[in-house]
Every structure is written in structure tokens, then in C-alpha cells.
Amino acid sequence: MSKVEPSIIELKYGNEEKLISQRSIYKSNLYKLYLFNFCIGFFLISGILIPFYLIYGGFTFLEFMFLQSYYAIMVLLFGIPCGIIADRFSKKFALVLASFSYLLIPLIYGINSNKILFIIGETLFAFSNALVSGSNEAIVYENLRIIGKQKSIAKIVAKNDAMFLLGIIISAPLGSVLANFISIRFIVLFMFFPYLISFIITLTIHKLNFKDFKRTRKTSKLLKSGFSELKNNKVLRILVFEKIIIETIIIFLVYTYQLYLLTELNVPILYFGFIDAGLNASQFMFLNLIPHIETNVDNKRRLLLLNTIIPGIGYILIAIIDFTPLIIILFLIVIGLGLSRYIIFTNGINKQITKDNRATVLSTINVFSGILKAILYPLVGYLVLININVLYVVFGAMILFIALNSRIKKDYL
Q1: Residue ranges with strand state E in 290-348
Q2: Which domain holds residue 348?
Q3: What does the pLDDT look like over 182-236, one tens digit per residue?
């Protein structure tokens, strides 16, 4: 019997059904990523971060900043290898591995408040976050490419990160209340359960399998590709520099505001979680608002300039105002706007990166961010102990200087 060739109509409808099926699968991946980020954001100690390290861990603030420098160095060391893991194997595998590492962290911190265990915990956090940082955005972009909606990346990344913030918004007040009435160790151990859910979710993510992906590329070539893209692409370098320098300065406020509440404003620890929830709610709001504003703005550079100048002014006002409610509002504005401005860069940066090493390049960008933080954390820790208000004025002035001398053009974004 001769083989019957399928008709053109059968081929057409067969391919359409396959395409519809693929789109359904990859859309479900995006929703799973939302839930994954919510679970890893259920970070109960975020609202009492400084008490966790200084009271439970027994660190001085300067030691805490050295520990954060160690964390940044470990993210630096893990960054590119983790990006390579995602590019050579799969983004799904990277997220599964990250989730398993997250599972171990509450057990390590919960055993005892030993400084050696804290170092181990920071190492695991660095490894997990390095795996997630390159893979999360890369898997979003590639899923969107499958369904032909790459231009929506800023909006989807914003939603993805907003779910992470939502986890913090819910968990931070809960963590500070439970720590106040039960113990810090209890909330640390309780984090095992949301991390377990995140691990289960990653196992259900559909693995991406692009035919145009060159799996035969050597690891050494992938490693070089991350640096070469930055070296050879001027636009990418400008975008990355202005993204990470401001982001780093804003992050210093994240690490110091609780100390400011304790030493300058005498705010009780019980309220820390609620303030932290407010900070993350502010960022959540701006992350969802900015992409919508972007679509209605012809010149994204002006939007970026406004989104940079306001945090710079806010930093300075925190140092010179002596009214607690207003200072807390300024915390909300500076951190909310400052840590959401990266969304404006997302589309521009991804347009500059070739598809087959996206996770590696994004991880390379995080490496440079980590270098900056690793160098500056101890210095900031020392300067905070001298005069935190003067330091805030300096940070605000630096942000304004960079904003007013920006080299970013509107077509870069």
C-alpha cells in the first residue's frame, strides 16, 4: 500500500493546532513563574532584617555590611556559571536547582544563630539568587517569543517582580509580629514551606526547546560571550552602567533604613514589618504603573529622568527633615521609584542581546552590579556609623549628578 501524503489543508490545520497548544503551554509557564516568584518572595525576615542579623545573629552593623559584601562576591562568583547552566542545560533546570537550594536555607539559619552558619546561609542565598536572576528574565523573554509578544517583556517582567514583592508585602508584617510574640528562629524555620511550594512549581514548568539554540557551543565561548557583548556594544554598556549605579545607591537605603528607624527615629521593632510592607507595596505599585505609563509616553528618556531625579531629592530630604511620618513617606518614594526604574531599561537591554546566550549576558550584568556592591558595602557600613545623615545627602547628590549628565538617548529605550 502506498503512503498517503497529507493534504495541504490537513498540514495547515495540524500546525495551527500545534501552535495553539504551544501557546497555551507557554502562557501557563508565565503564570507558574508568577506563583514561583510570590513564594520565594515570602521572606518573613525581610521586615526585621537588621534585628535578624544584629540581635539573632549577633553581628555588629559593620560586620553585617561585610557579610553583605561577601554575599555580593558570591553572587559575582556564581553569576556567570549559573547563567551558563541555564543556557547549556535549560532555564527550567536552573530554577529547579535554585528552588532546592532555597529549601536548605531556613534549615541552616534555624539550626543555631552561629556566624559560620550565617556564612553558609548567605552562600546558598547567593547561589539561588544567581540562578534565578539570569534565568527568570530569560525564560520570560523566550516564552514571549514563542507566542510572538516580545514587546510585552517590560510589562511581564514587572508583573513577575511584582509577585515577588507581593510575597514580601504579605510576609513582612507577619514576620515582625511573629518575631515579636514568638521568636525570630520560628519565622526562619517557617520559611521552609513557601520555598517547598516554589520547588514543586518549578518541576511543572514546561522546558523550552528552541531548534535555533546551539547546544554545541563550548562553555568557554559562552563565558566569553557575556563580556564580549558588553565590550562591543556601546549602547548596552551605557544602559547597564546607568541602571546598576543608581540601583546600587538605592539599595544602600534598603540596608540602612531599619538602622535609621532604630537609632534616629526610635521606632519599635514591632512596626518594622509594616513599614517594610509599605516600601514593597510602593515598589509593587510603581512596577505595575510604569509599564502602562511607558506605552503612553513618546520619550521614555524623560520618564527615566523623572524616575531618577525624584529619589535623589528624596534622599537629601530624609537627611534634613525631622518628622518621622514624613521620613517614612520619603522612604516609600525613594525605594519604590528607585527600585522600579529598571523596568524602563528592560526592553532596551534585551533588544541588544543575542538570543542564544541571553541568560549568560544578563548574569554578566549582575556580575558587574555585584562587584560594585562588594566594594562599597563595607565602606557604607563604616560611613553610616560616622554620620548617616551626611551619607544620605551625598547619595542624593550623586543620583542627581548622574541623572543630569545621562548619556542615554530616547531611542536606546
Answers
A1: none
A2: 17-205+232-412
A3: 888 899 999 999 999 999 988 888 765 544 344 444 445 555 666 777 777 788 8
Phi-psi region of 370 (alpha: psi -120 to 50; beta: other; left: phi over 0): alpha
Listed residue (71, 72, 77, 138) closest to 105, CA to CA: 71
Q: Shortest CA distance to 257 belongs to which of 326, 328, 207, 323?
A: 328
Residue 367's closest CA among 201, 250, 223, 182? 223
Phi-psi region of 266 (alpha: psi -120 to 50; beta: other; left: phi over 0): left
- What is the number of structural domains in the chain? 1
Spatial distance between the Cα atoms of 72 and 367, rounded to a whole number of angstroms:
9
Residue 285 maps to a domain: yes
Domain assignment present for 161: yes
Asked whether residue 220 is domain-assigned, the answer is no
C-alpha cell at 161: 517582580
Residue 216 within any structural domain of the chain = no
CATH number of the domain residue 96 falls in: 1.20.1250.20
Instruction: Report the chain's C-alpha Rg in angstroms.
Output: 22
pTM of the model: 0.74
